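Annex B. Sample input.
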Amino acid sequence: MKFRSFLFLIAFLVLGASASFADSAGAKIGKVTAIKGKVTAIGADKVERVLEKGAFIFLHDLIQVEEDGKAQIYFSDGSLFNLVPSTEFQVDSYERPTLTKEGHFSAQLAKGGLRALSGKIGKKNPENYEVNTPVATIGIRGTLFQIMISEGKVFFGCNSGEIRLSNEGGQLLLGPEAQAEYATVENQLASPVALEEQPGVFRTPLFGDLQGAKPLSQPLAVPAPTEAPAPAPASTEAPAPAPAPAPVKAPAPTSTEAPVPAPTIEQAPAPAPIEAPASVESPTSAPAPSVAPLSTPTMMEENLTIQPVQGCT
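Annex B, continued. Sample output.
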């Protein structure tokens, strides 16, 4: 019995660990919000998927954009990535920030280019947000940035917030309030070089608007404040007179005399039920009326003689 319980415990732990690993490896981290042309993703299982609008992006997906394609990826922390044609992009590490966790984001751009708007991770903990390129790593500080790999060089730009370029050759801050907004790096050992003007690679149609894509204007993770409705313009016309109040009826006068109570009508008591006689005798059985017996004539009656009437014989 103990051995069977031990086997059950081992099986439970193995299955739990496998499920946890599967959830970690195949976690949904983003979604395709706009797409054009052919764009594919190769997952951790080495299976290639053709992406369409609304398709999910999973951790460790290698996203490949063909020469005629473009795509916009929305990640769950609110960040947006617009991928230009001939791009290979992959997210190596991702964890959405919570009340107890800072979150982190680590991706790599192998070729091509992108324009992106960082989300909650870049605002809450910029040190945990980075994008790696073949020549340098950039740290994101809640910003709008762009990268393009072209002709053996990598070009960087930051139009809002700040990014930090770093490699074995040194570091350089880019942004509207930094030394420059644009820079280029030739290789991993070369120092980043600041540029005074926007490189031509960022002005090409590659970075043109993608139909149906969300604008990279503000972080989508933070809803825009609702503006109060504008007040109605004041009217120059005189206001219409207020309607006359409805007349109020005076209450009926109350009498000071005591009210006369209504006469009380007493109801006659219901007649008592007539009880049937105990026995009803038929008329034939009624006793005959009693006749007083003739008394014996007195002496005067005996001496009385009846005289015959004259003329009668």
